[in-house]
Amino acid sequence: MSHAELDQTAKSILIENDQGGYTIPTKGLYPYQWNWDSVFVALGFATFDQDRAWREVEMLFEGQWRDGMVPHILFRKDDPSYFPGPSVWGTDGGPIPSSGHSQPPVAATVIRDLVNADPSGKALERAAGLLPNLMNWHRWYLTYRDPKGQGVLAVIHPWESGRDNLPDWDEALRAVEVKDIGPYERKDTSHVDPAMRPHKEDYDRYLSIMAACRSVDWDPAEVARTCPFFVADPGVTFIFLRANRDLLALAEQLGKAEEAEEIRGWISRMEAGARTLWHEDLKAHVGVDQRSGKMTDGISSAAFLAPYAGLTGAETLGALQTHFDRIAGKVRYLMPSYDPDHQSYEPLRYWRGPVWAMINYMIARGFAEAGDQLRAEKLRADTADLIATSGFAEYFSPETGVGAGGGTFSWTAAIWLAWASPSHSQQAA
Question: Which of 23, 32, 121, 344 has a beta carbon 3.0–4.6 Å from 167's, enabling a disulfide?
Answer without folding.
Answer: 344
